[in-house]
Amino acid sequence: MDTKPTKTDTPADAEPDATPAGDLRDEHLDDPRDENTGENTAEKAAEKAAEKADEKADEKADEDLDPDSDPDDPDPDLQEAEERPTGVAAAATAVTGAGLAVVALTGSWVSRVLAERQTLIGQIESVNAASTEAKIDALYGDAWHLTALVNGCFSALALIIGVLVLAGPSFGAPGRFHPTWVKAVSWAAVALGALGVLIFGLMYFDALTPLPKAAG
Question: 71 vs 60, 77, 81, CA distance in Å?
Answer without folding.
Answer: 13, 15, 19
